[in-house]
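Q: Give me the 3D complex with nicotinamide-adenine-dinucleotide.
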Amino acid sequence: MSRLDGKVALITGGAGGIGKVTAKTFLKEGAKVVLVDLSEQALQEAKAELDAHGDVEIVQADVSKEDDVKNYVKKTVDRFGTIDIFFNNAGIEGKVAPLVEQKLEDFDQVMSVNVRGVFLGLQHVLPIMTKQGHGSVINTSSVAGLNGSPNVSPYITSKHAVVGLTKAAAVEVANANVRVNSIHPSPVNTRMMRSLEAGFSPENAEAAQAELEKSIPLGRYGESSDIAQLVLFLASDESTFITGSQYRIDGGMAAL
Ligand code: NAD
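A: Here is the predicted complex, encoded as structure tokens.
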């Protein structure tokens, strides 16, 4: 018996670093998986990589657009009958600049994907879960959703908002046995960190990585596979008494 046998999992940002590795982890544990992302080509490539591990469907969507969200939910239910697990994970980092130099349109774009996208996903997935009387939602926040750090104020703001959405949703759906938690990774080795390193230190991005790694007691970035194991736990029936919680996964950063 695998940990997610027969479950249907929907993953946004599913063609990205953390999303794709989590999809593979879910498939290996017996789930059927639907990947949602912006680029049809990236989705096709992810599907080609994952097909050998189980049932994978892809849906192109912009998570900040309500019609796209309705469509990815409908396609998932049409294909697999329901949604048991929702990894509400798509996100963007925004521009690296001091708060007073951030452009309003850049702030709005980050909020639109990271907050509106998470909100819309909850709005359209939770009714399916409450109706069936079970479900697990994992919202991807960040250590940037629990603490401040310089030069990424839109991102910090958006990831703090994910905590609010997680708590608000968790208390509304608990009586239907639906759980909603958030995860809070420190830097993880994906495209997003390459982009942020280049923003923090345009002349020497590798130096930015070395500097950041010094602030992590375990001395390294997280890998997507580290994050996937936490998401798997929260998705599975091993965490049935956990809801409304914030899970740090940060190599010890918070202990400093
Ligand atoms: P990533 O860039 O590899 O993946 C993010 C994915 O989201 C991409 O495939 C991208 O195309 C997709 N996406 C972006 N905007 C979208 C939209 N409007 N609609 C649909 N899909 C969209 O980065 P990642 O590291 O895998 O990030 C996944 C999540 O983890 C994000 O929410 C990110 O903020 C969070 N996170 C990342 C780190 C890190 O260091 N990498 C740390 C903490 C939290």
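A quick observation: The chain has two domains: 8-186+225-249, 188-221.
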